[in-house]
Amino acid sequence: MSLSGRSPGRPPVELDRILSAAVALVDDDGVDALTMRGLAKRLGSGTATLYRHFDSRDDLVAQVVDSVMGEAVTLSESAEGDSWQVALSVSAREMFAVLRRHPNIAPLMLERIPAGRNAVRLRERCLARLLHAGFEPPQAVRAWSSLARFVLGFGVQSSRPGGVDQRPDVWSTLDPEDFPASSAVDAEETVSLDDEFAFGLQLFVSGLDTHARTWGIGN
To answer: What DSSP string describes 118-176?
Structure first.
């Protein structure tokens, strides 16, 4: 009890601890669980503590997403000094790896374009590598935006309930006479999401490389 006769407020909670708890909450219980009340309960605190750090749930979501993006920024730093092809490939793989570790985060990234400090750092690093290689600004920003959306699309697939590698039963029931092409590739439908991502990323980078060479751009 304070000298004024009123109970003191709850002690402040550090931002890093709040964000770690928020990421864990989304990992464990999904996107809908990320509310001010739900997060406060997980922290054993009150919502007033959270409003000292966040103006709204939208602000909370933005900072949670950027906290996760920080993992990709740290890992992708190893690609500095490599060719733009390697730099983009490493950044994409690390972003996807982060979304695989936190599959429920990807849907939050659909609510708004990530624009926190870590997201901007990752974008800056890739754009700088493209511009240094000789890409014109319109080419560089389109290449980065397309790559980011490619990764996010696969990341959202990771969040699908029931697993990401499930094969629809209907494929094996198709009549080969009516659907000869689908029947011919039926056995290949078991390819994992990770393998599909790696294949798609290779196509993306090699295709961009082909276009870059027609624009007079090398490594």
So the answer is: HHHHHHHHHHHHHHHHT--HHHHHHHHHHHHHHHHHHHHHHT-TT-SSPPPGGGGGS-T
Q: What is the pTM of this model?
A: 0.83
Give tens-digit pLDDT for 74-123.
766 655 668 899 999 999 999 999 999 999 999 889 888 888 999 999 99
Judge if 161 and 182 occupy the same domain.
Answer: yes
- Tell me the Cα Rg of the chain: 22
- Our count of domains for the chain comes to 2
Give a yes or no: residue 59 inside a domain.
no
DSSP letter, residue 215: T
Say what the alpha-carbon torsion angle 14, 17, 20, 24 is, to the nearest 10 degrees: -130
Residue 96 vs residues 17, 86, 92, 126: alpha-carbon distances, Å: 24, 15, 6, 15
Claim to verify: residue 82 and residue 131 sit in the same structural domain: yes
Same domain, 153 and 72: yes
Give the separation between CA 142 and CA 100, rounded to whole angstroms: 25
Residues in the chain, total: 219
